[in-house]
Amino acid sequence: MPETGNRIQTDNRMQLVIRVGTDSLSVSVGNPQAERNIVYEPYNAKSGISMAANLRDAFKSLELLMSGYRRVLVLVDSPVMLVPIDEFSEKILSSMYSHTFTDHKKDEILYSILPDLNVVAAFGVNKDLKMVIEDHFKEIRFIPASQSVWLHLYHRSFTGTRSKLFAHFHDKKVDVFSYANNRFKFCNTFNAKHAHDALYYILYAWRQLGYNVDNDEIHVCGDIVHKDWLLENLRKHVTRAYAINPVADFNRARATAIPNIEYDLLALHLSANI
To answer: Which of 175, 218, 221, 267 could join 152 via S-S bond, C-beta 3.0 to 4.6 A?
Structure first.
């Protein structure tokens, strides 16, 4: 059953959202009958089979996937290669990506243009997964899972005068990034199954960027591993370290009360800047 207090009638003009994580799968759509709410339906992905096989099975059991939507936006959690727009070449993109991420040579390489950040995000999509989606939808768009977070926090970064470093936790990883002059100043993804690892990588980026421990800020969001411990230890090194509260961040939208919903989906559905 979808995670929402309101059942909705299918509107084929609406866009369904499928989020494909490393080992997770969910489907969502905006709810026109409830302002700033989302119909969210997670799928209990089976270990030992591919995400393509999981998605194929999900079409037999998830209500939203059986509701006749024709348009879909697919959020894919896979390694991202960022290329400045003025250096982007579609002809060499696949070879560049395969050389950078050697474990993804069999993926189909797609890209998403982010004009606000003057960058192109290249990412891989499993070919079997892409085929399953193409078998069920007429209009399809793929983007990196973190794209909505990058854009949402980019606009948030203008608040106040202090420099900010962001850390977005998702899929047992952490994306660490900052902005300057309408571009990424830094952006990298690290494994973050353990809080100690996340602490190390966040502080490593902080020091590399030369931020001021008393004046500048760290903001963490998403599925934060051992949040209280992490914040306590960040504050031993940086005066201004904060956890972003989705309830406040998205103006108490009803969707923020949905259990375990990913921060990138909240940003996608609720941010005014996406």
So the answer is: 267
Cβ-based neighbours of 44, under 8 Å, separated by 6 or more: none
In the chain the first and final C-alpha atoms are separated, in Å, by: 27
How far, CA to CA in Å, does 114 sit from each of 97, 127, 257? 18, 24, 29
Dihedrals φ, ψ of 122, to 5°? -95, 140
Q: Higher model confidence: residue 214 or residue 34? A: 214
Confidence (pLDDT) at 42: 98
Could you tell me what percent of the chain has a pLDDT over 70?
94
Q: Which residues make up the CATH 3.30.420.250 domain(s) of the chain?
A: 1-145+260-274
Q: Which CATH class is domain 1-145+260-274?
A: alpha beta
Tokens standing for residue 65: 């996937």
Just give the CATH number of 149-243: 3.30.420.260
Read off the pLDDT of residues 34-92 as tens digits, 9 standing for 90 and up.
667 899 999 999 999 999 999 999 999 999 999 999 999 999 999 999 999 999 999 99
Instruction: Compute CA 229 distance to the chain's CA centroid, rounded to the nearest angstrom.
Output: 23
pLDDT band at 32 (very low <50, low <70, confident <90, very high): low
Q: Which helix (H) or strand (E) holds 127?
A: helix 127-134
CB neighbours of residue 267 within 10 Å = 26
Residues paired with 176 in a beta bridge:
167, 188
In the chain, CATH 3.30.420.260 covers: 149-243
- Confidence bin at 5 (pLDDT 50/70/90): very low
